[in-house]
Write a structure and sequence with these properties.
heterodimer; A: 6-stranded mixed beta sheet; 8 helices; B: 7-stranded antiparallel beta sheet; 22 strands
């Protein structure tokens, strides 16, 4: 079965589409790259040509300050590559612009999910189940203990804290691309209209989201605010800034972290997190396994994450699967 | 159970002691009896359910989760209770979930379980709880809360919650069993306290303040050596003998020879030491603290241990005698009673801490300066008319420790602190030179300290660490070994645990020597010469 798919080859630094000489999410510079989404571990600069959604290209331009060789694709649009291969970009529901890539060649269909989730996200269109022969999936949260609770429950913990300790602020550590904007958009949707304060590193990405039609409400910079103005408010910063000297300017912050890893107590303690928020832009265990059942591929390939457990699940359910040893994809902050 | 689970979660995620105290105090005030009493017992390891073990939980999970998936998950999480709480399948096909059990119901059901019924009954309880609740229940059943709450912290929180003296909480606590109904009735509703006179209970210790720059009149104060062992209270009441440590832990099992030796009805306070050649003293010598350490923390004591490190108690005070509470008497009167009591105690296991004769304060300073023995930590000064009062009361007892030993060490590694210090590199590992630094000698770590500096100094050291980092290992940074600390410590001992073969007691940063070049810091030999084992 897999031998029929010799036109697609996993290599340590990405997935090679042989007849088209194109790479999916390569971790080093190549002639032609197809990029699923803008996170740094998937979208690197310096390729000859970069094929991605317009949103992803905009994010890459913001990060790498160059748009050389950018070839935008719309969701649902099919483009023709060399060697009789076509590629279709399909929503993955991970972050703004994120896409699964459907590759077709000689009647064979391969779907590469990139990173994805199945939950509602006001900042991007939802994941679309796409039937295929080979389903190449991520497995960041590929252990049965990972079950992300509804985001509303987690955000309610922030509101409760602001209510019970109004003299402090809640400092939310969130990935600067995607997580931060989703958390802010969900807070707005839940009726939180007060200003939300940003770490400087968040500003440009939030602007970009707004330019693409995701409205985030009243955003202000921490640098422009006094300590007293921050009391009782939400501050959003990149995870690395949570325990950094930067946070000393805040009024006794309640350290929160929005991440799927917060499901495990020691993970939260290691980061000195006082208010863990289990919020992830990746599929949890139930989403991963349900998606495989719905897509119902002949074979699953697992790119990165805790692939052992997901392999075991395939074995228990009499499904074919293999783990690809791809390097460089790991999302400790998600 | 849900409130307790929420408390447990909040405690786990809180590093600050004051915040923990607030959380506990709020819970104790707001939660009804007997749930709050059971919670207090659970947090201080005061409960035991022999029918439920970690293996019971593992067996339950084997029936519900594929063993490979269980092992992968357990390895990732690192805690059986937590893994089980996360992997437990939510009950399906039930229209109405039975309500979560109260703390009291959970404790009652756990207590009724036998080896045979435990798997079924525990599963039923777990079905009634969410993930946090399941975690709390499994921890409650199998012990080891890992919430960072010591018995002392729990008692302090109790005292704060009801605005009662912590010394009384401590005294009554030991007289009662969980769920401590009379303790809450006394503290919350003003009921009469439990009668503690007739029980071999722990009575909170009287403690001393540092003397610092105070000068006392020796007409009003008596002086004694401050012995370097562990403070101990022995109680023989109602025909039973118990030994308690300073924190009120029952250490009777660790020192069986002391339990056997005390047969006179009394409660006495002294320093537990082991025999050795060090302190010649009065009726027999004491070894250094290092020798005593061999005896600490053991639940079972071998004959060899008893023979090699025989314990005895050097007595300071008497709290009760023949059923009479002496704590209200002045120190001088209690001292007379204690001296009278000595004749009735076996000299093999008890001696008296001598009162030092000095005419003037200066004479006393000379005596203190001459104390070079390892079994002496310094001097105690006790007001002759002071009653025995639990805790630290200003002006009654002073401790006047020996001047610390000092060495110059070089900063090698720094680690971020926790709580308020979580953004600062505030825990330092430092070393001394092994060989001549100019001839290729290297630094060997000799100790670790996280106190002794001011907030201002902390900021400067933090900046130094960030600017002089050469390597990172998780939360630890290795520095370029350019900063010298003058480190103060009480004593130094041989130790196999450290590469340098030395371990300091109570090391702290005495001064930051910004001016001193690293190669001028002390050598290992200098430190080794201070060992007096």
């Amino acid at each position: 079965m897999a031998a029929d798919f010799s036109w697609i080859r996993p290599a340590p630094h990405g997935i090679h589409v042989v007849p088209a000489d194109a790479w999916i999410d390569p971790s080093r510079a190549v002639e032609r790259a197809l990029v699923t989404h803008g996170h740094a571990d998937h979208a690197r600069g310096g390729h000859g040509a970069t094929i991605a959604t317009s949103e992803t290209l905009a994010i890459m331009q913001l990060r790498y300050a160059t748009s050389a060789g950018a070839q935008p694709v719309a969701y649902g649009e099919t483009i023709r590559l060399a060697g009789g291969v076509t590629a279709t970009f399909i929503p993955a529901g991970h972050v703004l612009g994120s896409a699964q890539i459907l590759l077709e060649h000689a009647g064979e269909r391969v779907v590469i999910t990139g990173d994805y989730k199945r939950r509602h996200d006001p900042t991007c269109p939802p994941f679309v189940v796409t039937p295929c022969d080979i389903f190449i999936t991520e497995a960041t949260f590929g252990l049965p203990l990972f079950r992300h609770p509804p985001i509303a429950d987690e955000l309610a913990k922030i509101e409760a804290r602001l209510g019970s300790e109004p003299e402090r602020c809640v400092l939310v550590g969130a990935y600067a691309l995607g997580k931060a904007q989703r958390v802010i958009a969900e807070l707005r949707a839940a009726g939180h209209h007060a200003p939300i304060y940003l770490h400087g590193a968040m500003e440009r990405m939030c602007r970009l989201y707004e330019d693409w039609g995701v409205s985030l409400g009243d955003l202000r910079l921490v640098t422009d605010a006094t300590k007293d103005e921050l009391r009782g408010h939400i501050v959003v910063c990149p995870p690395a800034a949570l325990n950094d000297r930067w946070s000393r300017r805040l009024p006794d912050p309640v350290t929160a972290m929005a991440s799927g890893w917060m499901r495990v107590r020691q993970r939260a303690r290691q980061r000195n997190v006082e208010l863990p928020l289990i919020i992830s832009d990746h599929a949890d265990w139930d989403e991963l396994t349900t998606t495989v059942l719905e897509v119902n591929p002949a074979e699953t390939w697992i790119t990165h994450g805790r692939e052992e457990a997901l392999l075991r699940w395939h074995q228990l359910n009499q499904r074919r699967a293999r783990a690809l040893a791809l390097v460089g994809y790991e999302d400790e902050d998600d | 159970m849900e409130q307790f689970a929420a408390l447990l979660d909040a405690l786990v995620y809180t590093t600050s002691r004051n915040a923990k105290l607030r959380l506990l105090a709020d819970y104790l005030r707001d939660t009804p009896d007997p749930d709050r009493g059971w919670a207090l017992a659970a947090l201080t390891d005061g409960l035991n359910f022999p029918a439920v073990k970690a293996s019971t939980v593992r067996a339950l999970m084997q029936e519900r989760v594929d063993p490979v998936l269980w092992t992968l998950s357990r390895d990732f999480v690192g805690d059986t209770a937590e893994t089980a709480s996360l992997l437990w399948p939510e009950p399906s096909g039930i229209d109405v979930t039975p309500p979560a059990p109260s703390m009291a119901e959970a404790v009652e059901l756990l207590g009724q379980m036998t080896r045979t019924t435990a798997p079924r009954e525990l599963a039923r309880l777990l079905d009634r709880l969410d993930a946090s609740g399941r975690y709390a229940l499994i921890k409650l059943a199998t012990g080891g809360m890992r919430a960072g709450v010591s018995a002392r912290l729990a008692k302090t929180a109790f005292a704060q919650a009801f605005a009662v003296p912590v010394e009384l909480v401590e005294e009554y606590w030991h007289a009662l069993a969980p769920p401590y109904g009379p303790l809450f009735a006394w503290a919350a509703d003003g009921a009469n306290p439990p009668d503690t006179q007739a029980m071999p209970l722990f009575r909170p210790f009287m403690l001393a303040h540092p003397l610092d720059d105070t000068v006392v009149d020796l007409g009003h104060f008596a002086a004694e050596w401050k012995w370097d062992g562990i403070r101990v209270q022995l109680a023989h009441v109602g025909g039973e003998t118990r030994a308690y440590s300073r924190s009120g832990d029952d250490i009777s099992a660790t020192f069986p020879e002391m339990i056997a030796a005390l047969q006179v009805p009394c409660v006495i306070d002294g320093e537990l030491l082991v025999r050795g050649s060090h302190q010649g003293g009065e009726t027999g010598g004491a070894a250094s603290f290092n020798a005593l350490q061999q005896r600490l923390g053991r639940k079972v004591v071998s004959k060899a241990m008893l023979a090699d490190y025989p314990a005895f108690v050097r007595l300071y005070d008497v709290l009760m005698l023949g059923g009479v509470d002496l704590r209200e008497l002045p120190w001088s009167a209690r001292r007379a009673k204690l001296e009278g009591l000595m004749a009735r105690l076996p000299a093999s296991h008890f001696d008296l801490s001598q009162v030092l004769e000095a005419d003037t304060f200066d004479d006393l300073a000379t005596i203190r300066a001459g104390a070079r023995d390892e079994a002496i930590e310094g001097l105690m000064l006790k007001r002759r008319d002071s009653p025995y009062i639990a805790g630290r009361r200003v002006g009654l007892w002073y401790k006047w420790k020996r001047d610390p030993l000092l060495v110059d060490c070089v900063l090698m590694y720094a680690q971020r602190g926790s709580g308020k210090r979580s953004s600062f590199y505030s825990d330092y590992t430092f070393g001394c030179w092994n060989g001549d630094p100019d001839q290729g000698g290297d630094l060997l770590p000799v100790g670790k300290a996280y106190s002794g500096f001011t907030d201002e100094e902390l900021k400067l050291i933090d900046r130094h660490v960030r600017q002089h980092t050469v390597n990172r290992f998780g939360p630890v940074r290795e520095t370029d070994r350019s900063l010298v600390f003058e480190v103060a410590f009480d004593s130094v001992h041989e130790s196999k645990r450290h590469k340098s073969g030395l371990a300091m007691r109570f090391p702290r940063i005495h001064r930051v020597r910004w001016d001193k070049p690293a190669h001028e810091a002390d050598r290992i030999e200098t430190l080794r010469a201070l060992v007096r084992d």
